[in-house]
Amino acid sequence: MLHLRKSAETNSYRTLMVEPDEELLYVDLDSLQRLETGDVRFNRGFVDGSCNGLILLVLNPQSILLWNPSTRKQNPLPPACPEDTSRVVRYALGYDSKHRDYKVVMVDQTTPEWEVFESVTRVYSLTTNSWKLVGDFPYALPTNEPWGLYLNDSLHTVIRHCLILAFDLAREEFYELPKPDYHGFSHGLVLVEELGGCLAAVVVPEMSISEVWVMKEYGVKESWSRLIRFDMCQIGLSLHMIPLAYSKSGDEILFNNKGSRFVWYNLGSKTVRVADVEGLGDRSNRKRCGPLFDARVCVESLVSPYDSGLLWIWEMERQRKRKAKGSRR
């Protein structure tokens, strides 16, 4: 997967999947210009995960797709369970490098009442094209925050604003990660994202203050480092700023300002400028409860939505031919 490594090392070949009320937008992250997706058309709320260029689309519990917008290939997956609108269901997509397999994790819960609920976790394997039951998700599902962030062969989420929970895709079990040692509200942990290949956490330690912390060494509590501290009263933005990606030069970070607009934050000058996404427009003055759009960073790739092993086999064959060619010289 050389092209994926090159993308991570150079902050290139990245795209942004934006979900406003209308048609889904697929844009280049550097230019913020809209890209073509062929005949594929999806409405807001269908994107439930992204990994190595593959997008997980959940139209309903009976219609789940893996889609590569770069190659415009899509693969319908078998349904995981009967449709039941009375339950809370969340999906996430990730890659299990140990078994070279793309997996979808689905957590299905009854609506929690006084912290009492039933929970079922299922894992879909692209290699076997089937679902199986695994250990239960031990907490009530977060409903409004991002869920199932993929990083380091695991899926991550914040529970009760005080705990980082992860799901190991190889072992297929849950584990806890240490949170940053910030000072302030004990329940100030808002969400986690991936930033520059590291786990990043958004923290609200006190009123009007928002911070971004980065775990420089995965799983090591002492490696948490505060990257940014915002005073929202001074910059006029939302407390729940979601960091999405570094700029190609690395001196700015793109933020989703609570689903109203995108902004670039300059790490050197500590200033903010609006990022105009083609086809989106400024929605900061629109009246509505909740975010006006969602956004996910993706990477352009050749990964097949049909078979986890195809790209790996192609890469191994390419390396074999290169070695054979070198030995003949």
UniProtKB/TrEMBL annotation:
Domain F-box associated beta-propeller type: 50-264
UniProt xrefs under InterPro entries: F-box-assoc_dom_typ1, F-box-assoc_interact_dom, SCF_F-box_component
PANTHER family: BNACNNG10540D PROTEIN, F-BOX PROTEIN CPR30-LIKE
Protein name stated in the entry: F-box protein CPR30
Species classification: Eukaryota, Viridiplantae, Streptophyta, Embryophyta, Tracheophyta
